[in-house]
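Quick one: structure for this chain?
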Amino acid sequence: MSSAKPGRHVLTDWRPEDPAFWDSRGKALAARNLWISIPNLLLAFSVWMVWSMVVAKLKLIGFSFTTDQLFWLTALPALSGATLRIFYSFLVPILGGRLWTTLSTLSLLVPAIGIGLAVQNPATPYWTFVLLALLCGFGGGNFASSMSNISFFYPKKEKGNALALNAGFGNLGVSVMQFLVPVVITLGLFAPVIGAPQIAVENGVRSEIWLQNAGFVWVPFIIASAVAAWFGMNDIASAKASFSSQAVVFKRKHNWVMCWLYVGTFGSFIGFSAAFPLLMKTLFPEVNALQFAFLGPLVGAGSRALTGWVSDKWGGEHVTHYVFLALSLGVLAVLHSVGAFGAEPSFAFFFASFMWLFAWTGIGNASTFQMIPAIMRSDMPRLMPAADPAARLKAAEMESAAIVGFSSAIGAYGGFFIPKAFGDSLKATGGPETALFIFLAFYLSCVAVNWIFYGRKASMLHAGAQSTAFKVPAE
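Got it. Here's what it folds into:
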């Protein structure tokens, strides 16, 4: 029930594992918080990855940056976003999900407005764009706190699907942005307010664009979503915890193992999302890459949102095994499409191969996050042998939320390393092959790590009676 003293938004009685409570009150409250969380997270991803589209237009309107500098701009938001996630992952139990969702969403106004102002002047120095790219990391940081917050609202049997919905539709912000930006930059409906157009010259054709719209378009939606979070979301009193109590996860072996696996899933999704438009434009300059770019993140976000139930039903560790095998095959297909094995480069095969990669990164994002609560519940009897089941469950929930947030932070560094690897490979060899072979080796290492720790029959999720406690009951 809500407490009058702390405020009507604070839930002092929250028992999602109690079927009667869940059916009577819990499910509706959890759903409301989830569906308010989603648009806030979607906007965070939109602002976080907006540079992936802006950089493709900078040269056309008079900025004289090199290709390597442009790849840096696509990589820097992921670097700052991943770093901020480390801190954001612990803030929900300290400040409360409602307050932090509101503040973190409002922080997106800084880079959104900054981009809108900076791109209007071709004399804007490169360091300004570097700073704005780093500030876009505010959007990346939001994911850790958002996922941590939602994890407290749902019972274990629905947690995987709830996290998949929050993350999947949140990830959709990348696709929404990559679809919307090419449209809004052609519109000058509010030119007296947003500024004069720029003249873009592409393949000898001159046209007017309003590149500032790529930043300004998000402003009203950011304000509206922050207001909805403040008036519509709840804090859970039992989810309160200090940083020191959450920091125990740094001592947990499985925290670091899951970080490794999540670099392979989410790191790949966000890294490919950042690099895909510029990589297409660089390798296949004859193709209008921006009109196709949104499809990759759309596929990845959709597969994440729609496949959470698969891991709830069959076990995330099994799904994750096939995810990394599929990603390995996808990299081999991309290598073939760019001529690494002697064939003529093919844009159609290149594009199809990346759609395959995006789809499996989404499935893997859902499966790895489904694994974390199961792993911690399975490990609690060993970690807390003298505690009663209720205490073990509470500790498992707290540590799971912290690991979800922290692993999302480490995983997000893939958004920096993948664009940077492509940029370095193109600079050193003229092609992306070196980067792709590195990705292939990493995915194969993830196959081995997942199998050793979680997939084989002797692993903690399968050996002994404890493993049965974390399988979803047949419906």
